[in-house]
Write a structure and sequence with these properties.
Structural class: alpha/beta
CATH architecture of the largest domain: 3-Layer(aba) Sandwich
Strand order of the largest sheet: 18-17-19-20-34-33-32-29
Strand content: 25-35%
Number of strands: 34
CATH class of the largest domain: Alpha Beta
CATH superfamily of the largest domain: Class I glutamine amidotransferase (GATase) domain
Distance between the termini: 86 Å
Number of helices: 15
């Protein structure tokens, strides 16, 4: 008997008090107490043995052997010797023993399942031969064994794994009681040509010529043809024919550095027939960075030549400084990191974050943090907090955060969350989470951004309106969030019933700012909705923002947001709903855009303002809060002294925030 958890055997000590307290002491019930004690001892013994993993092993005369045959490229193409070895082994086996065969390379395929038949046919399975994965072969063999035989694996290979964790697979086999044997098979020597190394300078200047050094190893004298490619283009006008001698051969090729930016070079050699049995090592890559005039990419929503171009002064100023300037819109901003790294700096001028794809924002973050790029963000009415930068990769990179921390400048806010609770909101999204659950999560998270002096309410609607949490001070956030959690989906869709219920009370709220956030995933009767949103905005200063789920959202929802002085969000990825709620909650309560003429105050010397003798008069900015490690170079006027020009080190790169605009 064996145990998988011998420590559990210590629990047998429980038997001592069991014997002490359970030993029969009274003659008249000795039999009953003895039987009871015996039963308790048996039960405890069985429980302890189960916890210890007791196993009773019995010997068997049957043996199951699985041969693992390495057919990777390093083994050549002739496997007759391996087949003969297996046939010889099978010819001498007892009649009840079973034999299986697995062929493996990068993956493993069963060539023959376990059988006691003695005939071994030629191999027919065709695994991927580009790698040697012992782990895949061993794991497949383990899955083929039955439980009523002794087990053995025999590996026929040159013993050079190139992928997978062979040691871990072998340990698993040992733990399963499977013996592994190894029979070395070395392929016959064959002619081989191998591209060993390609070297190029790390950095070259645009227009300069540079050398690429190539090292090739050959097992015998032969002739090759070589060419170099970059960006899909052949750089040598014709293949360079070179004579190789047995051993190492070195060649140098001189090329011009034509365009600035990172360049990749692929060296490819072609060999004579029958002179190279393994051609997967006839291709190598190298990289170099071609440095020219610093390239700057300026991203804005306008293009050159448009009637209103907010970059009409910025672009000429950059070009006069000797910079190579290119323009892009959010839609044409390169997505790949390789395209971004060719720019020294990327400037984003008054572009809202929702104009970029998520992958673009993540790549901008990687470009600065990991690749040492520079990022400058220029303000405007659709940047920073008004541009929905909060909780995005842009806020991570920038030296300012979007939420204002100065309690004295925060007006009291009343916000009403109005949620569609119709039956369709209970349908799971692509992530398997119903939309109503995402809406509840969004409200719960956005409540955290409210101040203790703010007020909030939660309402829902199907064919009727329901007040889940009446208007109240945000003092007990947990109670408010508990009420939100009671929302359930079911019913039709009557937006007017819900917004009428909210409008009845919000117009009487004492707060300086009042805001409704409507979330719906379907259409409804549009009558009266746009007019009610417009009346709330004009007559009672109540703004309304609409979050519509799905491409089929009704057109009147956008009209409601426009008439209500709020924002319209069309959401195709429902996972973005919590972020939009948080942004709406913060934006509704804060005065971010400051429009007044002022002269910025210099608070720190920095190379960014080198050569500027007098600071110009500015006409406004977007308020933000500098981060702890940031250096504020320019500030706005009192009393708030908001940051105007801020910079910091972010990872390997630098990020700069200029909160005024480019005009």
């Amino acid at each position: 008997m064996t145990f998988s958890n011998q420590t559990a055997l210590l629990l047998f000590i429980v038997l001592l008090p069991l014997f002490y307290f359970g030993w029969p002491r009274y003659h008249f019930r000795r039999v009953r107490d003895s039987v009871s004690l015996a039963l308790r001892v048996v039960i405890v013994t069985l429980v302890v043995l189960a916890l210890a993993g007791a196993q009773l092993r019995q010997s068997t005369d049957r043996l199951a052997v699985i041969f693992l045959v390495d057919v990777s490229d390093s083994m050549g193409t002739d496997f007759s010797a391996q087949g003969d070895y297996i046939r010889e082994a099978v010819a001498n086996k007892p009649i009840d023993d079973e034999v299986g065969i697995v062929l493996f390379g990068a993956n493993a395929l069963p060539e023959r399942t376990l059988s006691n038949l003695g005939d071994i046919a030629d191999f027919t399975s065709d695994p991927d031969t580009t790698q040697t994965n012992f782990a895949a072969a061993i794991n497949l063999a383990l899955s083929m064994f039955s439980d009523n035989t002794a087990k053995r694996i025999v590996v026929l290979s040159d013993g050079i794994p190139t992928s997978g964790n062979a040691l871990q697979a072998a340990e698993l086999a040992a733990a399963s009681g499977v013996e592994i044997s190894y029979v070395p098979f070395t392929p016959q020597a064959a002619p081989e040509v191998q591209l060993l190394q390609v070297d190029a300078p790390e950095t070259v200047i645009e227009g300069q010529v540079f050398d690429i050094n190539v090292t090739i190893e050959a097992t015998q004298d032969t002739t090759i043809a070589l060419n170099i490619y970059s960006g899909g283009q052949q750089l040598l006008t014709e293949d360079a024919v070179r004579q190789l001698r047995s051993g190492l051969n070195n060649f140098t090729f001189t090329l011009p550095a034509v365009a600035s930016g990172p360049q990749s070079f692929q060296v490819l050699i072609k060999t004579q027939q029958d002179a190279d049995h393994y051609d997967q090592n006839n291709r190598l890559y190298t990289f170099t960075n071609v440095v020219g005039s610093p390239r700057v990419l300026v991203v804005s929503r306008t293009q050159a030549g448009e009637a209103i171009d907010e970059l009409q002064y910025l672009i000429p100023a950059l070009e006069q400084s000797g910079l190579a300037v290119e323009r892009a819109t959010p839609g044409t901003l390169p997505i790949s990191i390789q395209q971004l790294i060719q720019y020294h700096t990327i400037i984003i001028a008054n572009v809202p974050a929702n104009q970029f794809a998520s992958a673009q924002l993540e790549n901008l973050k990687t470009y600065v943090r990991d690749l040492g790029g520079g990022l400058v963000v220029i303000g405007g009415p659709e940047s920073y907090a008004p541009g929905f930068y909060m909780l995005t990769p842009l806020e991570d990179v920038l030296p300012v955060e979007m939420q204002l921390r100065d309690q004295q400048r925060l007006p009291q806010l009343t916000v009403a969350y109005l949620i569609d609770r119709s039956g369709s909101m209970g349908i799971p999204s692509a992530d398997g989470v119903p939309n109503i659950e995402l809406a509840k999560q969004a409200i719960i998270e956005s409540i955290e951004f409210l101040q203790a002096t703010d007020r909030a309410a939660v309402a829902s609607f199907d064919t009727n309106g329901y007040l889940i949490a009446p208007f109240q001070d945000v003092l007990d956030r947990r109670e408010l969030q508990r009420l939100v959690a009671t929302l359930r989906a079911g019913g039709g869709t009557d937006i007017l019933a819900g917004i009428t219920l909210v409008a009845r009370d919000i117009v009487n709220e004492p707060s300086q700012r009042k805001h409704i956030i409507l979330l719906t995933d379907g259409g409804a009767d549009a009558r009266g909705l746009v007019e009610l949103a417009e009346s709330l905005f004009i007559d009672h200063n109540v703004t309304t923002s609409v979050i519509a789920i799905g491409q089929g959202a009704a057109p009147f929802l956008r009209e409601m947001a426009q008439a209500g002085g709020g924002n319209y969000h069309l959401v195709t990825n429902v996972a973005e709903i919590p972020l939009i709620f948080a942004q709406e909650t913060v934006l509704a309560s804060r005065s971010y855009i400051v429009e007044e003429p002022f002269f910025p105050l210099l608070t720190a010397n920095n190379p960014m303002i080198q050569g500027i003798d007098a600071l110009p008069r500015l006409h406004g900015y977007v308020a933000a809060t500098p981060k702890t490690a940031a250096q504020v170079v320019l500030r706005g006027p009192s009393p708030f002294e908001d940051p105007i020009l801020v910079g910091w080190q972010y990872g390997l790169g630098r990020a700069v925030a200029f909160t005024s605009d480019a005009t």
